[in-house]
Design a protein that fits this description.
Layout: E1 8-13, E2 16-21, H1 32-47, E3 54-58, E4 62-64, H2 84-99, E5 104-108, E6 111-113, H3 115-122, E7 125-129, E8 133-135, H4 149-157, H5 159-168, E9 171-173, H6 174-180, E10 185-187, H7 192-203, H8 208-221, H9 226-241, H10 244-254
Parallel strand pairs: 2-3, 3-5, 4-6, 5-7, 6-8, 7-10
Antiparallel strand pairs: 1-2, 8-9
Helix pairs in contact: 1-2, 2-3, 4-5, 8-9
The chain binds ligand T3D.
Length: about 270
Amino acid sequence: MQVAEPTILVDRRAGYRIVTLNRPDRLNAFNEAMHGELRGALDDAQNDANCRALLLTGAGRGFCAGQDLSDRLARPGEQIVLGGTLEAHYNPLIRKIRALPFPVVCAVNGVAAGAGCNVALACDIVLAADSATFIQSFARIGLIPDSGGTWILPRLVGMARARGLALLADGLPASKAEHWGLIWKVVADGVLVNEAEKLCQQFAKAPTYGLSLIKRALDASLTNSLDQQLDLERDLQRAASLSPDYAEGVRAFMEKRKPDFTGAKGKEP
Ligand code: T3D
């Protein structure tokens, strides 16, 4: 009996995990198995108290080409109706990435198309190899940008560019993606994973609980009024100040040494 290749590879490192989408002959397009294995990998990372960052990347020459279209080819007389798969797979995935209580670094190693592009953009820090491209390819097959695309694009690059990307569905080279503010940084192809790992190593020693609150505050700011956001900052800053890392950060500053953060959440006094 032939054993199926895992569609997700997980590499455990000190303080972080590397999760690799592993269907390289399909440019890591999503099928049901990959959704399930990715969900499991993200849950495991969240349940591991020693995991303080996650690096998401793709095997082979692409990052992810979105939905595997070979699973969407209608037979004569059959109609493929979408909506349910977003509810079951893509929407929970995007929500999960945004809610993970540590930074998610995406290393976009090649083409990121369709939902693959929007999964990358849901991550906290997006690094891209010089040769990578970002494509909102949905309109090429009569669909709309999903996996949060219609929400994140205008927020990252403004409405004019969001409309161009979504309606024209042209590939955006990594250098232009950086210039437009779609991603954090472009790096040379050969150093991509190394650079992404350096960030994860930094995050593995960071005040993780505080970083999780930063993620929450920034996400909430996208819909909150200033008044609501000031109230939220008050509440989250209170929570941050209860963490042992805050006391350690101040102590280390006063003692002119590097802080030794545990990443832990604090307790009510
Ligand atoms: O359906 C739902 O559940 C709703 C959710 C939808 C979310 C979505 O993501 S919809 C959008 C789906 N994705 C696409 O439309 C992208 C399709 N792919 C492409 O347009 C191109 O492959 C790329 C622009 C990404 C890259 O082009 P290129 O020329 O570098 O590579 P290629 O030759 O097209 O692809 C290489 C192989 O990967 C090729 O297989 P082969 O000929 O070597 O056997 C190709 O068929 C395969 N591949 C690439 N993308 C997909 C795919 N196979 C299945 N599904 C794909 N999405």
